[in-house]
Amino acid sequence: MFTAVPLFYPLLLWVVLRGTWIGLRNRGTPGAPRWPVWVMLGATIFLAGFRVGLNVERSNVIDVGYSGVVGAQRIVTGTAPWGNFPIEHTKKACGTADAAGEIREWIQTNGRCESANPEGDTYGPVAYESYIPGYLVLGWSGKWDDLPAAHFTSIAFDLLTLLGLFLVGLRFGGQRLGAVLAFAWAAYPFTQYVSNSNTNDALMPCFLVWGFWLASRPAARGVFAALSGWTKFASLLIAPLWLTYPGRKPSKGFALGFAAATLAVFSILLLAPDPFHEAHVFWTRTVGFQIGRAAPWSLWDWGQYHARGLPDLHIVQRLLQGLLLAGAVVFAFFPRHKSPLQLAALTAVLLAGFELVVTYWLYTYIPWFYPFAAVALLAPAVPLRHLVTQSGRDSDELDRLGTTRVGTRDEGPLQPHVALRGLEPDG
Question: Is residue 335 reached through a cis peptide bond, with omega within 30 degrees of 0 on the bond before it?
């Protein structure tokens, strides 16, 4: 652990610095992949099938995936998940002891024999609601067994993210960028790691990818930002940036979409006899628990190992966390006009920055920022087509007017609607 943990910090820092550089300069990376589109699409389809096969035949479900199934079952049966997860040492055991002599199955207050998962209710509501389709189709035995509903959800969101990235590339860069981004997700080892662990870490980026695809639709952008934020709270950091996109003026449509989605996903609080008390339980079990969570998986909590001569870096961590929050506010207003490329790059910066300063970090968190880092790094050197003009109108309105601003180095004035090689216009 003391060798492995420090190794990922330089890489996360590189994502932050490189993303900031792209976000401020609005220039893609020279030397984007030039393989034939049909080759990349064929490889992507093969890899996608391979990934599904690995998930079905050679994967396991860790506690995070199990939590999603438990939460879905609670919601479907009319119970809010927070404070109602299966616990250990109830009045009656219903399972046999394992090799370590520990009994994991206990009769719960609902009368079911269930495997204990007492700290599984630490996520936002969407982290459980997303598992409802899988639960309705495949059910749950109450045990921490193969959990087919977790496999179903993991595979579904993995493929939805892949499809979303293809559509993002198709919209903002044409067929080649669509093929490149889809292949990038399918070929990346850490997205496969998430799939084979059947965690919920593909949910958050999936919602953000689809929100990015609909970036010129403020209400839709707000809905998907809320769905992501109420899955894993880290993505709430990007809300100010997405609120003001593509300029500096906050979007009423984004705010309305975000608020509507928030009300919808938190409606499960009404399942509790006292929704206000349940809201307090939600806060305590999620935000309260996560803020005070101790872990050795980052540099910031190594003060507990002071006997090994390791320093206490909590003060440094707090300073960096303050810098991250300031960056989230600054990016909302600067640059003054943002292209899709800049939106992707700065989104990656904020999510990777969160992972730099958080106490509890795992390798399964890498796919949170990866789709947007992929857009920023794999897009052509010419900026992605702009969704904003000097008057603030998006590309769909410009399509109706017959003009659009083409991405040029000096962000020139409106020009006739033209197509650059590899940057075909929408529609």
Answer: yes
